[in-house]
Amino acid sequence: MQPINWADKYFDNGERIVLTNSELHINGLRMFGRHFLTKAISPLQLHFHENSFEFTYIIKGNVTFSVNDKEYKLSGGDIFVAFPNEIHDTGSIPMSANEMYWFQLDISRYQDFLFLGNDWALDLIKNLKKIQNRVIKTDDKEMASLIKRCFSLLYQCDDSNRYEATGLLVVFLHRLLDYDKQIQFKLTPDIAKAVDYIFNNINEEISLDDLANQSGLSISRFKQKFKNEMGVTPREFINFRKVEIAKTMLLNKQSITSIAMELGFSTSNYFAVVFKRFTTYSPSEYMKKHNKNNNIK
What dihedral do alpha carbons 199, 202, 204, 206 form, nearest 10°? Predict the structure, then answer.
């Protein structure tokens, strides 16, 4: 499939909002969007953004992007960077339930870029081109507050808010550059133990008691700390991992009932509900779609 030069159009259905330059009236800010998805949607096709960076900030949930056949898995607090004219997509993986903000910066002209003076604009663009990490991990509370406030001001479409919102966006970009230069943080030892336990026992029915005991924390403290570091709740992470494994098992022709039992789901019906929430397909629909794609190839 040939990649398309993606140009967003204004859209607002409550769950998904896309503001374009026609609404924003800010030089350099090509678009700004937000989605709050309560169920999975179809994957994004191969595309690029002409002369524009795209920054995607995940508030919560899990999202996968693909560049040059390499997958990048993101969770809450992560920023995905797509460089100008760079082809990317979400592979064959539907976008699961998540909350995220994304915006595109057109760097073809630096005059009045984000209302900055020419020297400041050129310096910012130069530094954005030097970003080293495809996925940048951040302090999600600080960055989330900045981007939420910025989008909220722009969504009001009030001229008096435009300069304040753009100022917040510039601060967001400078903080992003700071995070890019830092050694990307690792999990704390207690949460790392819990994650290792999940990976090593993914075929079992894993309880919060088990994970809290592994980490040496109370259940309430464990849930809070896990979400802060992983960007999703423990249950969401467990189910996400189980669904990823189930995909391979389905393609290896295992029955839905045996997969449900092997991965520790209480019933095959519950397994199907969880699988569809993360992929948009029931297990049987997923197998049919994969077989159809293989036949086309």
Answer: 70
| DSSP string over 9-40 | --EESSSEEEEEHHHH--TTEEEEEEEEESS-
Q: How long a stretch of residues is the chain?
A: 297
Domains and CATH numbers, the chain: 4-181 (2.60.120.10), 189-296 (1.10.10.60)
Q: Who's near 161: CB < 8 A, 6+ residues apart?
A: 153, 154
Closest CA to 211 of 230, 231, 191, 229: 191
| Structure tokens that stand for 30 in this block | 């090509």
**pLDDT tens digit sequence for 212-232:** 999 999 999 999 999 888 878
CA 252 – CA 246 distance, rounded (Å): 10
Whether 87 contacts 45, CB under 8 Å = no
Q: Which helix (H) or strand (E) element contains residue 82?
A: strand 78-82
DSSP 103-157: EEEE-S--TTGGG--HHHHHHHHHHHHT---SEEE--HHHHHHHHHHHHHHHHTT
For 273-287, the pLDDT digits (tens) are 999 888 888 898 888
Determine whether 25 is exposed, middle or buried from the number of CB atoms within 10 Å of its CB (0-12, 13-18, 19+).
exposed
Largest CA distance in the chain: 63
Sorted by sequence, the CB contacts under 8 Å of residue 126 that are 6+ apart come out as none
Cβ atoms of 32 and 269 closer than 8 Å: no
